[in-house]
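Can anyone check this?
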Amino acid sequence: MTNLPKGFLWGASTAPHQIEGNNVNSDFWAREQNRAGMERSGDAIDSYHRYAEDMQLLADAGLNAYRFGIEWARIEPSPGHISKAELAHYRRMIQTALGLGLKPVITLHHFTSPRWFAEEGGWMGDRAIERFTAYVDAVIGILDGVEWICTMNEPNMLALMTTMGRMAEQQKDKKWLSPTVEGEARPVLPNPDIDISRRLVEAHHAVRGFLRERTGAAVGWTVANQALVALPGGEEKLREVQYVRENIFLEAAQGDDFIGVQSYSSQNVTAEGIVPHPVHPDNTIVGNAYRPDAIGIAVRHTWNVTQGVPVMITENGIATADDDRRIAYTTSALQHLFKTMDEGIDVRGYLHWSALDNYEWGHWEPTFGLIAVNRETFERHPKPSLAWLGNVARTGSLSLTDEVTAGVTVS
């Protein structure tokens, strides 16, 4: 038996650009129109208009939390112009979640920025911190009742995407490689530019304090955790790559109210560097190794580096068309998570990635969702995994069949 803290969050996550549709003022939308090898987000899955239906499905299943984002490119379509209509839209989303008994976990920046921000130099522009701070300040007024705020999603991946974007501009004949889709036998992605990483840390620290003071919410950010493990002889290289890919961001979370852990798979490290996932029939649609144990590795590493900042699993899941496999993966992942809690690590919630099958940063094929969507009609089709996770949330038990394989109690 694992003791869950009172108020433990059970839910699912999304990102605005991946589900809303027609985010025409964003830098990523512009990239989609001009980059070879990218599918376009287009209408996405029209959650901008269908968010109430999406939230209702989560609540009806038995979940008590929903992580979603506010899109900066909609809030501030041009420098200094704040859209009152868009602020009202996201306020309605927050009120809808609260009315359904879903704790909103709000992400203020999930990879995408206004196009004008990118044209000013993006995160390395002279006014980047000032611009981000002004946006966050404008949003604070709609966050009443929100108890959990993520300033940024995966700044390590954002730094990598910015780095890769610069490389792509210099190599316009090269096809787009989504940082979240590995593919079979794909080379390991480059390290993010350390200067970009430091600027993102600066941005997080610039808004953390006044967000906390003016909302009363718990404030943190989320980090993509690769659950890296050193093979014999790779210990020194592991320390090197962990710092530039994760630890600089985890260390920056010291003093935060929580840290979002986002884990999918694990990779080995030798003296030469990270070992690419070999081709294997068990690999997921995005080329990841099937490693539900990665969540335990990631949580322990995060807990150690942050020196005991409370953990929330803000993303964990698997890209698969086989929903039975999704349930099996998530069952095992939760068992590994519960083991870390039994060891004394403070875990506040589990939010599955993702609530719905959605646009995967240049590609439509990967399906992570608990809910399938017909992209022609936008009709939602809950998968068995949604009912299964809702049952875990209601009953505190994990089971693949009628036999309970793990149990939890709430204290």
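Reply from J.R.: I decoded it. The domain at 2-410 is CATH 3.20.20.80 (TIM Barrel).
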